[in-house]
Specification:
Number of helices: 6
Largest sheet: 5 strands, parallel
Strand order of the largest sheet: 5-4-1-6-7
Number of strands: 7
Distance between the termini: 35 Å
Strand content: 15-25%
Order of helices and strands: HHEHHEEEEHEHE
Structural class: alpha/beta
């Protein structure tokens, strides 16, 4: 699998979808959309891998940290709070974030009482057997080893985790970026 991922390295200028500074190869379609981006449905990432397209940027979300960033009573129903976050991340997978336009491969890391949250086609849910932070670092390390050119973005406010994934080459953003 790693050799297949490694063979798909491309420069940002050759991506089939646009960047913030304008469309690249593929051009703009009707109403200014970038060709091919809106037509991608659930499971397109696996299909793109088979067709040797560039993998989308990886967005890893520290579920406990993001859920805990808003005092909305999440502590009364941790699983329900994680499910609401997962559901909100579906739109993020398609549209992206201001600093990283979509589509994105979204991974939500859950721990503790939220471990039983199921994934969706647009949002992969990964249960942390121990520390959620350690599992996030593992995910970033695996992604960077498989394709060093692949963009990785971690969503957390945890200072130590930010430093750990930053040392691996991942970018970091805070919980507000996904709590819109």
């Amino acid at each position: 699998m790693r050799s297949a991922i490694s063979s798909m390295r491309v420069s940002m200028g050759s991506l089939p979808y646009g960047r913030p500074d304008g469309p690249r190869a593929g051009g703009a379609g009707p109403a200014g959309r970038v060709a091919g981006s809106a037509e991608r449905g659930p499971g397109w990432h696996a299909q793109a891998m088979r067709e040797n397209e560039a993998a989308p940027a990886l967005l890893v979300v520290d579920g406990a940290n993001v859920v805990g960033s808003v005092p909305d009573g999440w502590w009364r129903d941790r699983r329900g709070a994680a499910e609401r976050l997962r559901d909100a991340l579906v739109a993020v997978a398609a549209r992206g974030l201001p600093e990283r336009p979509g589509p994105l491969e979204v991974v939500l890391v859950v721990e503790g009482a939220a471990r039983s949250v199921a994934g969706l086609p647009e949002v992969r849910v990964v249960e942390a057997g121990g520390s959620g932070d350690d599992r996030i670092v593992e995910l970033v390390r695996e992604a960077r080893a498989g394709d060093p050119a692949r963009a990785c973005l971690v969503v957390t406010a945890d200072r130590e985790l930010r430093a750990r994934v930053g040392a691996l080459g991942a970018d970091v953003t805070g919980p507000r970026s996904v709590r819109r």
